[in-house]
């Protein structure tokens, strides 16, 4: 099934919040209506009271102060309560919608054909910056209702002084909206695109430089990298200033519209002074009620750029969902999980579940790429010659292929969390005793018990507080906990001393035997290759061939 496009995805994640968005729109309209009435009635009341005072004691006694003042207080309370409710419902609905959207897009990243094609900087930009830009669009949804209600009340109050004034105000409100729609693409589109691109580049550079910080310091490149960041930051700031100037130009139209509305009411009014003041202030309030809607139009350039970037992500490298592909039918020997196989340039190698294979070869010959394609981390085509249950891997959904293998890569990624956080990535519902058993198999249990917080020890950013050997063994423990039919290990003893390596081999051998899990291990170390019942080598051309000797060394 085709991946949903961005508009469909937004509709799906926003659907549960439609009631709250509707309530927020109603409350926003109430805010605008009461604000315009409050301005108009206050102006009428103050002017009328002033004229009554000038008219003498008799006029003062006949002027009703109680009802207008009570009405003003009521309008003020309604405006405050409605504003609070509009913020509560509108922002709550927007934040919940964005939370679901981030989860859906993160899920999409995990289903792309080549996971490594998405850089950390790009993922952070899309999931944080671009989705954050959509907040304006969602939060300002009630602005349309506010503009309509505020404008309608202002036009209605202007009718009290003269029909011509009312029609003129209606025309002026339309002109302000047209101005915003005309000015936005001309003054904001280009700087909005430049700002989004600049921020994305700056975030990606920061993440890349932070990841390579030790090497940058070791080679004395800190000054060069700092200048590169400063140059990119200056370009981003320039785009931000141009965007701010463009927004000021759009807002200037709103400001001039408010002044023109007040002047027109004074000019066209044929009513008494209190009603004229009422119309003047109501007209100003009606134009002000357009503010949120006009700013939403202005911010549309930034939102449009974010939508374009997010839409590109939803369509890029999308893997098949698998709904129209066959699932695994079982194995010939009845064991849980499929048999695996691959072509070797004329012959086909087949391993049944529970069998073990060791792969060796020169550095750069493609051993890691072989494991990544087998695990479904790198894209596989029908011509690559990988098989599950005797069928080409390309015939199965990517999620089903990945569910077959537990993979411990050569450079394992760690969450910036605790030991148990990283272990529980393997699968949900794991108990502490299961975590300790996996740590024992990976020969890491003693290290973790010696840590001040045990399973709850913080591992740092990307596992920076762990040694290279500890990160490697934590990755192995995580793959053991996954409970998959096949275990793929890439240089699992790299960074370990010979004694720890010997214990790791013994523990893995015992666990593989008792669990019936199949194994494919890549290593240069003879002790690890001893885990494999069958040995294979990769020659310099990347072709897999069968090793003749049980011990390649």
Report on the structure:
- The chain has 553 residues and is of the alpha/beta class.
- The chain folds into two domains: 6-315, Up-down Bundle (ABC transporter transmembrane region fold); 340-546, P-loop containing nucleotide triphosphate hydrolases (Rossmann fold).
- The chain has helices at 6-14, 18-54, 57-62, 66-109, 120-139, 143-158, 163-187, 189-211, 213-218, 222-268, 273-289, 291-315, 367-375, 398-402, 419-423, 432-441, 445-450, 468-481, 498-515, 526-529; strands at 340-343, 348-351, 356-361, 386-388, 391-392, 405-408, 486-490, 518-522, 534-538, 544-546.
- The strands form two sheets. It has a six-stranded mixed β-sheet with strand order 6-7-8-3-9-10, sandwiched between helices.
- The chain is elongated and about 110 Å long.
- The model is unreliable at 317-326 and 328-335 (pLDDT under 50).
In short:
The protein is of the alpha/beta class. The chain contains 20 helices and ten strands.
Topology:
Layout: H1 6-14, H2 18-54, H3 57-62, H4 66-109, H5 120-139, H6 143-158, H7 163-187, H8 189-211, H9 213-218, H10 222-268, H11 273-289, H12 291-315, E1 340-343, E2 348-351, E3 356-361, H13 367-375, E4 386-388, E5 391-392, H14 398-402, E6 405-408, H15 419-423, H16 432-441, H17 445-450, H18 468-481, E7 486-490, H19 498-515, E8 518-522, H20 526-529, E9 534-538, E10 544-546
Parallel strand pairs: 3-8, 3-9, 6-7, 7-8
Antiparallel strand pairs: 1-2, 1-4, 4-5, 9-10
Helix pairs in contact: 1-4, 2-4, 2-6, 2-11, 4-5, 5-8, 5-12, 6-7, 6-11, 6-12, 7-10, 7-12, 8-10, 8-12, 10-11, 10-12, 16-18
